[in-house]
Design a protein that fits this description.
Elements lengths: L1 H22 L6 E9 L2 E8 L2 E17 L1 E13 L5 E13 L2 E13 L6 E12 L4 E11 L7 E11 L5
Antiparallel strand pairs: 1-3, 1-9, 2-3, 3-4, 4-5, 5-6, 6-7, 7-8, 8-9
C-alpha cells in the first residue's frame, strides 16, 4: 500500500515539475498576416475523366511575401480543374526571408480550392520545417483571394494565422 502511495506521490510531483517546463518550451502565439504574390507557370498537364491535372511552379520571378512573412519563395504544386469548373491545389512553398525579425528559410505546405472558375481561392497553410533563426518556428493558418488571373500573370492571396517559436532544449 505504501508503495502505491509513493508511486502516486512521485507521479504527482513529476507532473507538477515537468508540465510547466514543457509548456515553457514555446513562445506565446503571435498572429500573422500579409499578402503572398505569385506568378504561376505550368510544367505539365494531363487529362482524365474530364479533369485536367497539372503540375505547376512559381520561380521566375520568385514569389514575394509581404507582412509578417517578408521575403521570397519558389513553389511547386499540383492542381486539378474539374469539369464543374472547381479547382483544387496542393503544394509546397520554399520561403527565404524574415519572420518576426528572425532570418532563415521555411518549408510551408499549402492546400486550397475554388468552387468554380470565377470564385476566389481559399485554403490552409502549415509550416513543416525551417532553418537558420527560423528552425524552431511553428505555425498554421488560412489564405484566400483572387489568385493569379492566368499563367505567367502575377496574382495575390492574403494569409493569416498564428505562429510561435519552439524553444530549443538544452
Amino acid at each position: 500500500m505504501k508503495c502505491k502511495r509513493s508511486i502516486a506521490l512521485l507521479a504527482l510531483v513529476l507532473t507538477l515539475v515537468l508540465v510547466p517546463a514543457v509548456i515553457a518550451l514555446a513562445t506565446p502565439p503571435t498572429i500573422v498576416s500579409g499578402t503572398w504574390y505569385y506568378t504561376p507557370w505550368i510544367a505539365s498537364t494531363r487529362f482524365a475523366d474530364g479533369n485536367m491535372f497539372m503540375e505547376a511552379y512559381t520561380s521566375v520571378p520568385p514569389d514575394r511575401w509581404e507582412g509578417t512573412f517578408d521575403g521570397t519563395s519558389v513553389d511547386e504544386y499540383k492542381g486539378v480543374i474539374h469539369p464543374t469548373g472547381a479547382w483544387n491545389a496542393d503544394g509546397v512553398a520554399l520561403f527565404d526571408g524574415v519572420v518576426g525579425g528572425r532570418e532563415g528559410t521555411l518549408v510551408i505546405e499549402f492546400v486550397g480550392k475554388k468552387t468554380d472558375a470565377e470564385a476566389d481561392w481559399s485554403g490552409k497553410w502549415v509550416i513543416l520545417s525551417g532553418t537558420g533563426e527560423l528552425a524552431n518556428l511553428r505555425g498554421q493558418g488560412t489564405w484566400w483571394g483572387p489568385g493569379a488571373p492566368g499563367v505567367g500573370i502575377e496574382g495575390s492571396v492574403e494569409y493569416s494565422g498564428k505562429i510561435h517559436f519552439a524553444r530549443e532544449r538544452t
